Each structure stands twice: as C-alpha cells, then as structure tokens.
Amino acid sequence: MNYTACLFDFDYTLADSSVGIVKCFRIVLERHGFCGVPEDSIRRTIGKTLEESFAILTGEARPEILAAWRKEYTREADMYMNANTRLYPDALPTLQWLKSRGIRVGILSTKYRRRIVDFFRDKDVPGLIDLIIGGEDVARAKPHPEGLFKAMQCLNVEPSYVLYVGDSLVDARTAENAGVDFAGVLTGTTLRSELAVYPHVFLMSSLSELMQS
C-alpha cells in the first residue's frame, strides 16, 4: 500500500450501528405519525445527514421541521446508539495492520464525533486512530469534500497519498470531490454494481482485504 494516510467512514464501514439507527428513527418517526416505515428504507439512508434521511423517509421538506426531528433523534441516540453498535470483526486487525506500517488512520463520518469517541472509549484502540472528524466539525456534510480537506490538513498529507474507505455512494462521491483514491467495502446496503460506477482503486467484501493490497 503506497498511502501515508487511510481515512474511514464509520457506519457500515468500521462498525454496524444499524440496529441503533433504526431504533432511533422509528421512535421519532412514529412519534410524528409515520408508522410502518420499512426497516430497509431506513437502512438505505445510513451515511446521509439526519435531515436528508428524514426528508427521504417522510417527504418533509421544511428545514425547521427536519432540524427539530434531528434534535429529537440525537436525544434518543444518546440513550440507545452506542449500546447497539458493534465493530466489524476485521476492523481492529485492519487498523492495527495499517498502523504497523506507519500509515496514519482517521475517521470521517456524518455521525457526531463525540459519539464515535464515546464508542471507542472502552475499546482496546490505544494509538490506532489519529483523527476523528464528525458531523459537528464541518459546515458542509459529505459528499462535500470539506471533511476530507480538513483531515488532510490536520494530518499534513497530500491527496495523492490518501485512501478513503467507505460503503456508500456518498463516500464514493466525497472521495471523488476531494481528489483522493476510494476503496469501497460491501458491508453496507450499497451494491457492488452501484459503487463500481464511481472511481475506485478496489471494491472489497470486507475490510480485511486492505491487508492484501
């Protein structure tokens, strides 16, 4: 691997938090009369901002309503999210492999940074993660490249030496917009054929395939 920095999306890339996400969405949606929204529909919005997800799931377009629902979701997530989130089995071995080769490791997610930090607090990850940029750290969410630009600036690395790993079309577009290489991982809801449309160096069934690159 000829990169000096490897940046990861979080949800469906390093960890599966879909149980918690579905639970929090259902609570807020049903509170406002949107009952019976299919679980698969909720899962397909993972990786988008909360406002975008609520708009897709309900057809609501008023910014003030979407912002209010985001706040409600956040309160529910404080109670339920991390307890219902699990790292993929090959996540830590892959991070350890990257660090053993002197590669800087970061996370770029629409999820709040504080929630990711809290999630890793009781995990055995000393020194594995150099940087976390969450939704509260940028003014413009993915696929805008602001987060990747900020990460590269913090790590003092040029785009040609960065690999961004994610599971979604949003991640693929983010990498393309930032001018960095993209590797897709098929642990989410996005199909190989969907990711293949975008520029990529490889598509993986699991993160462990990074260790074979």
How would you portray this structure in words?
The protein has 213 residues and is an alpha/beta fold. The chain folds into two domains: 5-16 and 86-212, Rossmann fold; 18-83, Putative phosphatase, domain 2 (DNA polymerase, domain 1). Helices cover 42% and strands 14% of the residues. The chain is built from nine helices and eight strands. The strands form two sheets. A six-stranded parallel β-sheet has the order 5-4-1-6-7-8, sandwiched between helices. Helix 1 (18-31) crosses helix 4 (63-80) and helix 3 (50-58) crosses helix 4. The longest helix has 18 residues, at 63-80.
Order of helices and strands: EEHHHHEHEHEHEHEHE
Major pleated sheet: 6 strands, parallel
Strand content: 5-15%
In which order are the strands of the major sheet placed? Answer: 5-4-1-6-7-8
Report the CATH architecture of the largest domain.
3-Layer(aba) Sandwich
Specify the CATH class of the largest domain: Alpha Beta
Specify Rg, calculated over alpha carbons.
17 Å
Helix count equals 9
Report the structural category: alpha/beta
CATH superfamily of the largest domain: HAD superfamily/HAD-like
Distance between the termini: 6 Å
Low-pLDDT stretches: none
Task: Name some characteristics of this structure.
single chain, 213 residues, alpha/beta, Rossmann fold, DNA polymerase, domain 1, 2 domains, 9 helices
Provide a compact summary of the structure.
With 213 residues, this protein is of the alpha/beta class. It has 9 helices and 8 strands. The strands form 2 sheets. The chain has a 6-stranded parallel sheet, sandwiched between helices. It has a two-stranded antiparallel ribbon with strand order 2-3.
